[in-house]
Amino acid sequence: MRVVVNAAMSADGKLSSKRRDQITISGPDDFDRVDALRAGSDAVMVGVGTVLADDPHLTLDDPERQTARRERDEPAHPARVVADSRARTPTDARILDDAATTYVFVAESAPAERIEALEAAGARLVTAGEERVDLASALPSLEREGVEQLMVEGGGELIFSLFEAGLADELRVFVGSKLVGGRDAPTLADGEGFVAEFPELELDDVERVDDGVLLRYAVV
Ligand SMILES: NC(=O)C1=CN([C@@H]2O[C@H](COP(=O)(O)OP(=O)(O)OC[C@H]3O[C@@H](n4cnc5c(N)ncnc54)[C@H](OP(=O)(O)O)[C@@H]3O)[C@@H](O)[C@H]2O)C=CC1
Ligand SMILES: Nc1nc(O)c(N)c(N[C@@H]2O[C@H](COP(=O)(O)O)[C@@H](O)[C@H]2O)n1
């Protein structure tokens, strides 16, 4: 399975503000590129921090892309995936509507009543890891469901973990022309941070998009 990490960051490397609420960094062309990347992916993943902060839908905006998927005998929208150790995803979250299949990765320690609530809301639960979702154990379950390309949209905690576990194949970053600042504002890769054995990236392409730059890296 190919794992493509995509995010939009400010010129100073922030994914959002210190309030951790969503800010618009991409312009129209970049949002369209993201829609196309979603359309070419079998599943789109975020961490529960993003679900709680943004209540994203993670579906396709462009009806023609939905039609093209249906014509390929694929569902109109890619599946949605949340890494959510404690099953904190609200049952009325937009990702749990019936627009697409939604997988929630939980840890063994997740409260049983929360798991039942999410299952009742239509989520497909995958348990991996004792206290925290073990991504290396969880991702193969998507592969078994036919996911060949997984797009990861963030946030910074999840992106760090994917790099830490050596699970990311590609990184696409839109660098917008905004300065956000704030030492506590989320960055592209948060987590514990690396102090050695920093993941190496190979710059494959640079393109001007909107009033910013799209960087495409292969993970070495
Ligand atoms: N500009 C952009 O492109 C994007 C911006 N954002 C922004 O990012 C912010 C949210 O990012 P962030 O707070 O980092 O949250 P994340 O979306 O990265 O979610 C992090 C949470 O996921 C859960 N999780 C479960 N398993 C793992 C694991 N193995 N590794 C890491 N996390 C795991 C953890 O909660 P638990 O322990 O409970 O499981 C963790 O706190 C928001 O402000 C949002 O607006 C988000 C996406 C894209
Ligand atoms: N690519 C991109 N550019 C930005 O400027 C952003 N703020 C984000 N945020 C991500 O998009 C998700 C919202 O998805 P829906 O429109 O609700 O489907 C949000 O949760 C972030 O993951 N992305």
Automatic annotation (TrEMBL):
Residues 3-215 form the Bacterial bifunctional deaminase-reductase C-terminal domain. Pathway: Cofactor biosynthesis; riboflavin biosynthesis. Residues 54-80 are annotated as: Disordered. It catalyses: 2,5-diamino-6-(1-D-ribitylamino)pyrimidin-4(3H)-one 5'-phosphate + NADP(+) = 2,5-diamino-6-(1-D-ribosylamino)pyrimidin-4(3H)-one 5'-phosphate + NADPH + H(+); 2,5-diamino-6-(1-D-ribitylamino)pyrimidin-4(3H)-one 5'-phosphate + NAD(+) = 2,5-diamino-6-(1-D-ribosylamino)pyrimidin-4(3H)-one 5'-phosphate + NADH + H(+). Keywords: NADP, Oxidoreductase, Riboflavin biosynthesis. Gene3D superfamilies: Dihydrofolate Reductase, subunit A. GO terms for biological process: riboflavin biosynthetic process. GO terms for molecular function: 5-amino-6-(5-phosphoribosylamino)uracil reductase activity; NADP binding. InterPro entries: DHFR-like_dom_sf (IPR024072), Rib_reduct_arc (IPR006401), RibD_C (IPR011549), RibDG_C (IPR002734), Riboflavin_Biosynth_HTPR (IPR050765). Coiled coil: none annotated. The keyword NADP applies. Its EC number is 1.1.1.302. Belongs to the HTP reductase family. NCBIfam families: rib_reduct_arch, ribD_Cterm. Homodimer. This is 2,5-diamino-6-(ribosylamino)-4(3H)-pyrimidinone 5'-phosphate reductase. It comes from Halorussus limi.
